[in-house]
Each structure stands twice: as structure tokens, then as C-alpha cells.
Design a protein that fits this description.
Phosphoenolpyruvate Carboxykinase, domain 1; Phosphoenolpyruvate Carboxykinase, domain 2; seven-stranded mixed sheet; about 350 residues; 2 domains
């Protein structure tokens, strides 16, 4: 795929602060990313053509290792607690320098430009830089995908630097252990290292939207799923991870707005994302047909086992983790609402 003319590939890396001579893979298609992952021995296809990978040591998020820089923007506006954990800016700058140096030493890097927020009035431009192809496929699946015309003048507002192979030194870097996710609102950058769990990428953006939208835009950010009936009636489903939001919202009789992250304005509900990240434990065609049939070429399945001697996924197998997952674009759901915006909620479920 040709790179849009707005910026040469090497300039993208220099703009992000990455030196070196890495081969840059920009805005590749899902098919190209799948091919590269398989060629590098990092994934295999299942019997329906989905890419299956292992995320390594971490098969879920690590909330105690997610930090927000306490600075002039956040010091008096964030409720600091055991979940919103502060970190000094000096540690962010130190980690960023180390992470940029690490990325500069890679032979290949994958870069993707994307949007968050389906409502154009609140859209956020994101650049994601990964050290492997399958993480970049996750970004393709989960964020909103710009058109070629939108890429021509794309200038990211936020940058995500993600490198599972880079480990922090807790003794000097201000982290709890070697893995970390650090957000800086001053530098509009998210650093993710030491973990291959892809959910850290999407939750990083969700975290910044949880600050930006209520604080600056008077929009309520919500951890919920949402769908819409034939008469335009919107329902939202609140719940923690794994409580059934994705399953309940994937109703063949209703249009799916989104399965996890939404904003509530004075006139609408809109999806933050361009895809779904569904749990697959005990998945069956009978119970969850929409999700089951979304496991096809372009989908990314994490931390599963096949039935012996086959490439059929054993959805009941939790040897690696109970948090087996699949990411896929929203349009893999046959009745997805496009664009993923609806009116004010009529039904609210907790």
C-alpha cells in the first residue's frame, strides 16, 4: 500500500523522536499484517482464517502498572488513588528516552494513523507505533480507520509508543515492575512497555478520553455497550469487563453501536472505537452467533488453544488464560450501525 504524500515514512519516525534505520510499515492492510506475522513465526491461522497469537507473559491488563504523569494539567484535576496512580514527569521523560532508543534499534516498525470517537465533533487523531505486526492489526481493528483523503493531511494529536520487548528498570524508572503504561497529558503520549497484551493500547486511549471529554467537552464517558432498535431507541449496558456487555449488545434484532466505550452528549451516544474486543471463553455459535461468525480473516484471536491435531479453536480451553479474546472491526457484525452514533438513551441496564 502506498504511503500518503503528506509525510515521508522516515519523517514520521523522526517526528516521534525515533532515530535509526528501521524499515517502516505504514498503514498496512490486515492481509499484509497477517502475512507478516505468520512469516515471522508469531502467529497462525485457525480454520476460519483468523490470526491467532500469544501475547506472552501478560494475558490481561495490569492496572497497578498504569500511571498518569502528575503535572500542571493533572495535579489538581485527577482523583489520585490506587487506580489513578501518579508518576513524576522526570520518570516519564526518562522512560520515553529509553523507549525511543529501543525502537530506534529495531529493524522494523509498524505505524498506524487512526481516529478515536465516531462523532466528528469529538474526534481524536492518533498515531500508533508498534514493534510487531499483530499489535498493529489490533490498532487497525479497534480504532476508527481514516480514508485515504483523511490521511493526506493527518497530524496526530496523540501518539502511542508500544514495545512489548522493552522492559523498565523499577529501581530507577519509577515503575512497580518491568511492565508499564504511562500517560502524559502534557506530551500527549502513551508509553507501553514490557507487555504484549493488546488491551493496554485501547485502554490507554479510553483513559485519556475519560479525562478530556468530561473535563473539556462536557461529554460523559462511559464503559458500556450500546445498540439501537428499529425505531431508533438506544439502549446502553453498563458493566465491568467480562459481565456480558458485548454479548448483550450483539442482538441480531438491533443495530450495534459499540461494545465497550461510548460518550453521552446532550443529543447523542457515540462509540469511541471502530471495533470490538470480545471475550471468547466458552464461545459458541448457538449462544453468540454474531461474535462467533466475526472470527474470520482480519480478526485477531489471543491466547487460545486448538483442538489436538487441528486448527479449530477450543473455546473451552483456559489453560493459558480465562481472558481469551478476539478483536475485529465493527463492520464484522452484520447489523452494525454506521456511523456508530445513536440518539439519547431510552433504556439503561446495569
Amino acid at each position: 500500500m502506498s504511503v500518503p504524500t503528506m509525510m515521508p515514512p522516515k519523517s514520521m519516525l523522526r517526528e516521534a523522536g525515533i532515530a535509526g534505520n528501521a524499515q517502516l510499515h505504514y498503514q498496512l492492510t490486515p492481509a499484509e499484517l497477517v502475512e507478516q506475522t505468520i512469516a515471522r513465526g508469531q502467529g497462525v491461522l485457525n480454520n476460519t482464517g483468523a490470526l491467532c497469537i500469544r501475547t506472552g507473559k501478560f494475558t490481561g491488563r495490569s492496572p497497578q502498572d498504569k500511571f498518569t504523569v502528575k503535572d500542571a494539567i493533572t495535579a489538581n484535576t485527577v482523583n489520585w488513588n490506587n487506580f489513578n496512580i501518579p508518576i513524576e514527569e522526570k520518570y516519564f521523560l526518562q522512560l520515553r528516552t529509553k523507549l525511543l532508543n529501543y525502537l530506534g534499534e529495531r529493524q522494523e516498525l509498524w505505524v498506524r494513523d487512526a481516529f478515536a470517537c465516531a462523532d466528528p465533533a469529538y474526534q481524536l487523531k492518533i498515531r500508533v507505533i508498534n514493534e510487531n505486526a499483530w499489535s498493529n492489526l489490533f490498532a487497525y481493528n479497534m480504532f476508527l480507520r481514516p480514508t485515504q483523503a483523511e490521511l493526506e493531511n493527518f497530524e496526530p494529536e496523540w501518539t502511542i509508543l508500544q514495545a512489548p520487548g522493552f522492559l523498565a528498570d523499577p529501581a530507577v524508572d519509577g515503575t512497580r515492575q518491568e511492565n508499564f503504561a504511562v500517560i502524559s497529558f502534557t506530551h500527549k503520549t502513551i508509553l507501553i512497555g514490557g507487555t504484549g497484551y493488546t488491551g493496554e493500547i485501547k485502554k490507554g486511549i479510553f483513559s485519556i478520553l475519560n479525562y478530556i471529554l468530561p473535563q473539556d467537552k462536557q461529554v460523559l464517558s462511559m464503559h458500556c455497550s450500546a445498540n439501537m432498535g428499529a425505531e431508533g431507541d438506544v439502549a446502553i449496558f453498563f458493566g465491568l469487563s467480562g459481565t456480558g456487555k458485548t454479548t448483550l449488545s450483539a442482538d441480531p434484532q438491533r443495530k450495534l453501536i459499540g461494545d465497550d466505550e461510548h460518550g453521552w452528549t446532550n443529543h447523542s451516544v457515540f462509540n469511541f472505537e471502530g471495533g470490538c474486543y470480545a471475550k471468547t471463553v466458552d464461545l459458541s455459535e448457538e449462544k453468540e452467533p454474531e461474535i462467533f461468525h466475526a472470527i474470520k480473516p482480519g480478526a485477531l484471536v489471543e491466547n487460545i488453544h486448538f483442538f489436538p491435531g487441528s486448527n479449530r479453536i477450543d473455546f473451552a480451553d483456559t489453560e493459558i488464560t480465562e481472558n481469551t479474546r478476539v478483536s475485529y472491526p465493527l463492520n464484522f457484525i452484520s447489523n452494525a450501525q454506521e456511523p456508530s452514533i445513536g440518539g439519547l438513551p431510552k433504556h439503561i441496564f446495569f
